[in-house]
Amino acid sequence: MADKEPNFQMTFAFIDRQIDNNVIQQRLLDGYINGTAICKSAGKEMKHYLSNQTTKEYLFELSSEVGIPTSALIQIVRGGIPELQGTWVHPYVATHLAQWCGKFHTIPRDN
């Protein structure tokens, strides 16, 4: 998982998505979604998702399929603006995460 500089997020525009009554931000440029916010909307913790063996296997398979290193599928942002901190995930990972959280039907699936 890649840790990003605090000002990294400032270079992106965001789309606000709604899951139930919670705002989930998605970066416009690369489509990465705030996984921490997805977990929070379901009362779950990102660290539990990341430590799950099924998640590790999924990330390995996804990495092989899309040609993106596993470490780049999940980006952890620390420091800077609190609202922009958290774990940002590739859109495919966001779908898997939403399934794990029981929120699959609410994740945006734009083309």
What can be said about this structure in brief?
Helices cover 38% and strands 23% of the residues. It has five helices and six strands; from the N terminus they run E-E-E-E-H-H-H-H-E-E-H.
Widest sheet, order of strands: 1-5-6-4
Spatial separation of the terminal alpha carbons? 25 Å
State the low-pLDDT regions, or none: none
Shape: globular
- In terms of DSSP E residues, the strand content is 15-25%
Total tally of structural domains: 1
CATH architecture identity? Roll
* Mean pLDDT reading: 86
Reading off the top of the CATH hierarchy, the class is best stated as Alpha Beta
Q: Which class do the helix and strand fractions yield?
A: alpha+beta
Order of helices and strands: EEEEHHHHEEH
Helix segment count? 5
Total number of β-strand segments?
A: 6
In which range does the helix fraction lie? 25-40%
Task: Give your account of this protein's structure.
By secondary structure, the protein is α+β, with helices and mostly antiparallel strands. It has a single domain, classed as Mlu1-box Binding Protein, DNA-binding Domain (Roll), CATH 3.10.260. The chain has five helices and six strands. It has a four-stranded mixed sheet. The chain has a two-stranded antiparallel ribbon with strand order 2-3. A hairpin with a 2-residue loop joins strand 2 and strand 3. Helix 3 packs antiparallel against helix 5. The longest helix has 14 residues. InterPro entries: HTH_APSES_sf, KilA/APSES_HTH, KilA_N. It comes from Bacteroides faecium. One of its GO terms (molecular function) is DNA binding. Pfam families: KilA-N (PF04383).
